[in-house]
What we know:
Helices cover about 25% and strands about 15% of the residues. By secondary structure, the chain is of the alpha+beta class. The protein is rod-shaped. The relative contact order is 0.11. Mean pLDDT is about 85; it is low at about 20-25.
Amino acid sequence: MSRCSSILTLIFMAVSGVTCNRTEYCVGSPGIPGTPGSHGLPGRDGRDGVKGDPGPPGPMGPPGGMPGFPGCNGISGTPGVPGERGDKGDPGERGPPGLPAYQDERLQTALRDLTHQILQLMGVLSLQGSMMAVGAKVFSTNGQTVDFEAIKQTCARAGGDIAVPMSPEENEAIASIAKKYNTYPYLGVGEGSIPGDFRYADGTPVNYTNWYPGEPRGRGKEKCVEMYTDGTWNDRNCQQYRLAVCEF
Length: 248
């Protein structure tokens, strides 16, 4: 029975290709590979690596849409410092000669109109008693009463001088204005450094006078001259308020 078992064992070993040696271990031939196993679960994320260097810039992209409308103007700044004045330019060419005044119809017409307007104005003022014309002189008043210095300034601003008669006709013209306003006017005559020596404003001695009887008698204390409404003169201090009469 044991002999039959040994024989069967040898047969099986021969069939399966197993050999045995005398040290009692066996060497078999490789078997058939088994089927692969299923995939395992994914592992955990690893740690972040070291940050790399920046890459080169990319190409420029395409242009955007349409440009927008311009904005509103800002507030104007402060003006700058004026620059230096430039050099004077060369004179221009001389124009053609004009017509003589007597041949210029437009100029003559303007002169005639101006003369007519002046005559109209003089006529109106004469009727009002505020202006009198004698020869080349015109005497006029604004009806105000002020002191001597104020009268001089008023006449000067109007382009004239304080009235001073140099003839009986001029004296009568000023007297008629004084009668109209019933106010004494100052005259453009003053006493000099010597008492009783009366002179015009330019310093020349008077060549016409019409003193009231007994005048002048201020003896250096009354430097100005006033005219009564009858046309006679009286020396007076210069601080009184008198009618402003100017001559042109």
